[in-house]
């Protein structure tokens, strides 16, 4: 081989290696989101012997706090139950599903039983102090939100709050997947019984949806089942 050709090949080889290095570093900086979403599944069996590190749990709670909500009103409270004695009586009100007790923590996602003008005033005060603006400058915005909330009947208002909570649930599940934490969204429970047993009604709350978090048990056969999802052609509509 001519030395010029050899040099060119070597140079191209180096360029290729450089490109691969750049790609690899970009990949390591970027989260493998699709991989994480394929890894996660609605965990049926948690390993009761494995607890989430405190720091990981705290990160998940930050994710909940950072969730978006309509007007930013955050009509939610996230009740964290780690104590297994408190959780054991919940199993019979969860269709017998043991995730609520075997997980590292059970997050009971709640909405307030009442939501009104005082909550909007509280939010306005929080906005004013966080952003360093006059409360009066937010009066029109506040009036608009009060008008919106005031026009909803109780059932529609409850539904509106639940929708915000489901957004937080989605964020939590995705964050769990990225953090290699297992989770299971759960609607299979009695809100009335949860509210009673956990004393949520006394806190002015009612449970909406659950999300136990922790680590999958080695024997959970659901972990290896293929994902059942419609094809892109069936669910994505491009106009
Ligand atoms: C709102 C909601 C409620 C759910 N309730 C339960 C439940 O009570 N128990 C359970 O084992 N799975 C529950 N699931 C899990 C779904 O069955 C599961 O997400 C779905 O079959 C897709 O499977 P995958 O999440 O494992 O990919 C629920 C999921 C959602 C989104």
Topology:
Blueprint: H1 3-29, H2 33-39, H3 54-65, E1 77-81, H4 84-87, H5 99-102, E2 105-112, H6 117-131, H7 139-150, H8 154-178, E3 182-183, H9 191-197, E4 205-214, H10 232-235
Helix pairs in contact: 3-8, 6-7
Bound molecules: flavin mononucleotide.
Description of the molecule:
This protein is of the alpha+beta class and 239 residues long. It has a single domain (42-235), classed as 3-Layer(aba) Sandwich (NADH Oxidase), CATH 3.40.109.10. The chain is built from 10 helices and 4 strands, in the order αααβααβαααβαβα. The protein has helices spanning 3-29, 33-39, 54-65, 84-87, 99-102, 117-131, 139-150, 154-178, 191-197, 232-235; strands at 77-81, 105-112, 182-183, 205-214. Strands 1-2-4-3 form a 4-stranded antiparallel β-sheet, sandwiched between helices. Helix 3 crosses helix 8 and helix 6 packs antiparallel against helix 7 (139-150). The longest helix has 27 residues, at 3-29. Residues 41-42, 44, 97, 184-188, 209, 227 line the site of flavin mononucleotide.
